[in-house]
Amino acid sequence: MIVTAVPRVAQIAREVWKPLAVLFIWDVIVTATYLVLPFQAPELPLTLFGSALALFLGFRSNSAYQRWWEGRSLWGLMINASRNLARAARNFLPDPEARDMKRTIVLRQIAYVNALRCQLRKQKVDAEVLRFLSKGEADFALSRTNTANGIVDGTGRRIDLARRNGWIDTIQQTSMESVLIDIANAQGGMERLKNTPLPNQYRFFPTIFTHLFCILLPIGLVETLGFATPLGSTVAGLMFLAVLAIGDDLVDPFANTVHDLPLNAMCRTIEIDLLQSIGDEAPEPLVADKTGVLW
């Protein structure tokens, strides 16, 4: 996620130069054709076309932003639920004999959020997951189709074992299970966003209509702007292409691009909070890189 207050010109140029170059070349071809071989430009209702297209693109961008914000809200719930689970493990398992159980539950939750991060980004499970699980625990989780869910299932079994050992009672077990339910519900919401893209009509038609409008734009403006047509048409087309790109950037909040949610940073936040809750040394928070992107 780009966190700098002022967009960097280099970043903007990398994202828009290709469509802008194609649009400018087309504008120059139309303008040169009109000046060398004058033709009667058709009276295109560009104002009407542009207004309708702007409404269409605005509605699509709002839908994409709602998906992005829902993803951020679900990760906020995941952070809070992780803290709640660690606090419950610390407070409900004060018995010295339950020390290893308490640490296991906390460390498994750190492994879980990192496994979920990898799944949402369609990456292989990385070292941030494996270093918080023992060999047997890792093998069991990796054998599951849904690795993150396998880790949560294992945590639930350990909570049940703590109850059977007499370290917690049924009320405390129910309280901790309710936190696991919150975690599972948040994961389900994230998987829904990841596996259910915007309907094809929201993705296909805006792209076609925007490109068609950019093609017609210089034809409708050349008689009025003359030599300035390439500049005026390119700037106008840039605004519509930018709105189209915004929707594309936000529609998948877990795609691991510079515009998506900083899952690495949020997983590090959970790791810091949970390790400190059990008195372990914690790493430093992640910060934005030199380009102003927080991953």
Tag the structure with descriptive keywords.
single chain; mainly alpha; 10 helices
Describe this structure in words.
The structure is a single chain. The protein is built from 10 helices and no strands. The protein is mostly helical and 295 residues long. Helix 2 packs antiparallel against helix 3 (99-120), helix 2 packs parallel to helix 10 (263-277) and helix 3 (99-120) packs antiparallel against helix 6. It has helices at 9-36, 46-92, 99-120, 127-130, 135-142, 147-164, 170-195, 200-225, 229-250, 263-277.
How would you summarize what this structure contains?
With 295 residues, this protein is mainly α.
> What is the averaged pLDDT score?
86
Approximately what portion of the residues adopt beta-strand conformation? under 5%
In sequence order, what are the helices and strands, one letter per element?
Answer: HHHHHHHHHH
Oligomer type: single chain
Report the strand count.
Answer: 0
The largest sheet is:
none
**Bulk shape:** elongated
Radius of gyration (Å): 26 Å
Task: Compute the separation of the termini in Å.
Answer: 6 Å
The count of helical stretches stands at 10
Structural class: mainly alpha
Ranges where pLDDT stays below 50 over 5 or more residues in a row are none
Helix content: over 70%
